[in-house]
Amino acid sequence: MTAVVDVRERGWWRRNAIWLAVLPLMVAAAAAAWSFRLMNLWWPTELVERVDSVGAGETAHFVGDYYDLGLTDPALANTWVTREVDVRVLDVREVDGLPQSVLAEIDRIPDGAAAWRVELELTAEPGTDLGLCQVMLVTSDGTRYGEASKAGTRPDPLGQGNPCMPPDSMDSIAPEAGTWQVSTVLLTRAGDTPDEIWFSFGNPHYVTLDVP
Asked: Which one of 14, 60, 61, 116 has the minimum C-beta count within 10 Å?
């Protein structure tokens, strides 16, 4: 009595077997896309969360979460990771020349500009991802020099690379030593004197340190 019904049911499953097989993948892809879209909707696009502020010669503690795409460590792909870095300003001084780099777009200080060398001491757990590191000079009127562009890139006409890493570093991972020193040069308008260093890895977290 039920043979016709059974045949129809088996036929429907067979006709839609492929769609049933890929359905879980489609659901997972849609969820991932929505998750990434939601992150973009609420994630701030400016440096709005100061997590520490210290005086001259003191150590600031940077802590902030970021969404890891697994480019450095595939095991962290599509997860939120907390990054912690201690930073101390060793010296800030005006210099007469620019660092030598084959990637530099300019080879001398432009007219109407000044060059400042910033020396930092950094401490982080070995293996910490230091990509998108930013070091900024900030004047008393709030002007920031060295900030990343709105598009998320960090154009550097001096071709220095990641300011968190020594010049001979081949990646953006905290070294095994755990504590190391770096130096970077930033351009400002001539006559502007920086009062603060802002240190960040992109929006929205940053720390401020008074210039010695």
From this structure: 14
CA distance 148 to 192: 20
Indicate the pTM of the whole model: 0.76
The answer to whether residues 31 and 90 belong to one domain is no
Tell which residue, 159, 146, 172, has the closest CA to residue 66.
172
- What CATH number has the domain bearing residue 200? 2.60.40
Residue 48: CB partners within 8 Å, gap ≥ 6?
Answer: 203, 204
Q: Where is pLDDT greater, at 76 or 117?
A: 117
Strand duo 194-200 + 205-210: pairing: antiparallel
Q: Which two tokens stand for residue 80?
A: 């939120």
Q: What pLDDT score does 157 carry?
A: 87
**155-178 exposure pattern, b = at least 16 Cβ within 10 A, e = fewer:** ebebebbbbbbeeebeebbbbeee
Indicate if 8 and 82 belong to the same structural domain: no
Buried b (16+ CB within 10 A) or exposed e, 9-29: eeeeeeeeeeeeeeeeeeeee
